[in-house]
Amino acid sequence: MARGAKPIFVAATRQHVGKTTVSLALMAGLKKRFPRVGFLKPVGQQHVTVSDEKGSSLRVDKDVQVMKEHFALDHVAYDTMSPVLIPKGYTSRYIAGEHSRDEQADDAAVKAIRDAYEAQQAASDFVLVEGTGHVGVGSIVEMSNAHTAALIDADVVLVSNGGLGRAFDELEMNRRMFAAEGVAIRGVVLNKVTPDKVEMVRDKMSQVLRERWGVPLLGVVPDLPYLGKATLGDLEGVLEANLLAGHRCRGLHYGVHDAFLVTTGLRRFLRRAFEQREANWNRPLFVTHATRDDLLLGFLAHHQKKMKQQENEIHGADMWAGAIVLSIGASRNFPDLEFVADDHQPLSYLVKMAVDTDAPVLITNKGTVDALECIKSFTAKHNITDRVRITAAIEHYEPQIDFDLMLR
User: How far from 350 is each of 68, 299, 355, 371, CA to CA, in Å?
Assistant: First the structure.
């Protein structure tokens, strides 16, 4: 494929299906096939502040930072990678007429996207483009993924969660929106497929896509639960918490299925959490109230014991690195009627013990139930500080994608 070929636009059937992870794998594979690969996120929502090539600060979509820095895309500038950002509150202002259609769709945004793509194309041998959310995202401000893909004459790789019936239903609905804009589907990637169903899904979905759409199934990716695990740093952010101690655990991953609200007494907690599971439960995440001095003391004692056994080492699948979240607030559905200072802080000697043992202890203003709900509902996303997850994702996804078929 020569320079000037159609870009690949990665789109998803809905949120949280792994679009960015597939984009990471595609970028890794494309860089092995083309000297210079550009990257564009035409319309972004969640942004970060970065320093550009001249040292100036600017806002870009968070996925742009991951792609540029992880793959060292030095041949393209930040200001050509994230042309349009839709900040919180923009939609309401748009509907109210504060941003006219002429200003947004027909003029400023369209020009910004086209100019950014042309800059990417001029500097690159191939351009990878990532959409935002599902295909219809942005429609309210007349900048849907389908419309954006049409603006730059891109072909689409559609990503959906695995299976057959439901997956195809979602794919068909999204395909029709692209078809309405005259955008072609280059192929499909099915993600998070139950491992023992991979071959069956590959066989059946390949047949359906070929017969109904005339497009190939480019990959079937087995589910890898590890990639959905949040780091302690992620949880620190979502809980608006303070990591009291155990800062070296900030980059370790904790699964939402290993997060529990502890309401039992100390004896039962020690028996169930440690004695019965000591051999195979290394990264539990306990949530309790800061007034449960007994549970915190039991956790700290166990942590101290494990650190002695592990010679203070925490890295490794079989190494203990459990963490505890202490709530100093009340749940929304059961608020305090009056403020009592003693209810809003752990005992000082336990705080000192946590610091001395370097045990991972988070303190949040949220109530215990609210904190657990935040943890359970959180979807881990790629960020440049978590290169372990990025590398694991690429190693798992890239071999599952047929690049020759995609580039044919």
Answer: 43, 11, 9, 21
